[in-house]
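Below is a filled-in request sheet from our internal design queue. Each sheet records the structural input a requester submitted and the sequence that came back. We keep these sheets so that new team members can see what a complete request looks like end to end.

REQUESTER: design group, bay 2
PRIORITY: normal
MODE: inverse folding
CHAIN LENGTH: 201
BACKBONE (tokenized):
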């Protein structure tokens, strides 16, 4: 450590220098390692949720591509079939978000001659299946590992940082406990899909 002692780590510049010295020596402080471990676990959870959700959305996405081909991309043509006509914009946003990187919708003159009632009902049924599958996936998700990592971070991070800097006031500065992950918090971040109601005929 040279001439620098823990008690001398009392300003932002010195703290940064202290961390760089440890990193150069391959001795990352325990609190930094713990923070990195938590960040990696949370990122892995988000990636897993996003990937599985996108997989389940393939069915609704294909139905939207079929509808896009039928209406030549003019989503306002859905207005007469929706209970709230202006909500065609919501359906258009689903297509934009879910099919952003998909190939253009296939061209089929036979499709264009059809009414939109049936494909819209098929889309609604597909979204219902997605919602049931996604809710079931979240209900069966094992949250214990990520929440144990969060609990350990909340319990030990300040202590480990105080040991590194020799100052508990520095360690507690700006620290906020991380709330546990719940099925509801995952559902808030990766929600079910609510399709606008269709007009009854």
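RETURNED SEQUENCE:
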């Amino acid at each position: 450590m040279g001439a620098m002692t823990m008690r001398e780590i009392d300003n932002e510049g010195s703290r940064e220098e202290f961390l760089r010295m440890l990193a150069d020596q391959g001795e990352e402080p325990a609190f930094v390692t713990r923070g990195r471990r938590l960040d990696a676990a949370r990122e892995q959870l988000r990636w897993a949720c996003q990937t599985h959700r996108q997989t389940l959305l393939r069915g609704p996405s294909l139905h939207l591509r079929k509808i896009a081909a039928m209406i030549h991309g003019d989503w306002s043509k859905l207005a007469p079939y929706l209970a709230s006509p202006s909500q065609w914009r919501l359906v258009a946003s689903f297509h934009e978000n879910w099919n952003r990187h998909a190939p253009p919708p296939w061209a089929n003159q036979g499709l264009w001659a059809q009414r939109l009632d049936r494909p819209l009902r098929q889309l609604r049924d597909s979204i219902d299946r997605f919602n049931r599958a996604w809710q079931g996936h979240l209900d069966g998700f094992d949250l214990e590992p990520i929440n144990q990592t969060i609990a350990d971070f909340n319990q030990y991070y300040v202590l480990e940082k105080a040991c590194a800097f020799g100052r508990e006031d520095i360690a507690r500065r700006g620290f906020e406990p991380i709330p546990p992950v719940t099925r509801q918090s995952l559902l808030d971040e990766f929600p079910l899909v609510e399709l606008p109601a269709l007009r009854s005929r």
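SHEET NOTES:
- The mean pLDDT is 83.
- The radius of gyration is 26 Å.
FILED BY: M.R.
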